[in-house]
Amino acid sequence: METVNVPVIVDAGVGTASDAALAMEYGADAVLMNTAIAGAKDPLMMATAMRYAVDAGRLAYRAGRIPRKLYATASSPIEGML
């Protein structure tokens, strides 16, 4: 998404808050949603969850993630462990 010079707005495939967060983490500028909120058991609660997810995803994108690795590597010291 960083290679385009227009805003990227995700308008499909957002079914829950984690989808919205991921879209924002990947660099989307916005997320449009209707069905996920309107069809939820508690639309107000889903709208609130989406709001927090979009905020969290955008903050994570701006903070910058650590590089991905093919294999997990322990980063905590093992000294003093039982």
Which features does this protein show?
82 residues; mainly alpha; two-stranded parallel ribbon; 3 helices
What does this structure look like?
There is one protein chain. Helices cover 41% and strands 5% of the residues. The chain has 82 residues and is mainly α. The protein has one domain (1-82). Helix 1 (17-25) links the parallel strand 1 and strand 2 (30-31). It is flat and about 50 Å long. It starts with 8 loop residues before the first strand and ends in a 19-residue tail after the last helix.
How would you sum up this structure in a few lines?
With 82 residues, the protein is mostly helical.
Number of separate domains: 1
Determine the mean pLDDT. Answer: 92
Quaternary class? single chain
Our Rg estimate from Cα atoms comes to 17 Å
Terminal CA distance: 46 Å
Cα shape: flat
Low-confidence stretches: none
Helix content: 40-55%
Fraction in beta strands:
under 5%
The largest β sheet comes out as:
2 strands, parallel
| Helical/strand content category | mainly alpha
Distinct helical segment count: 3
Topology:
Layout: E1 9-10, H1 17-25, E2 30-31, H2 35-38, H3 43-63
Parallel strand pairs: 1-2
Helix pairs in contact: 1-3
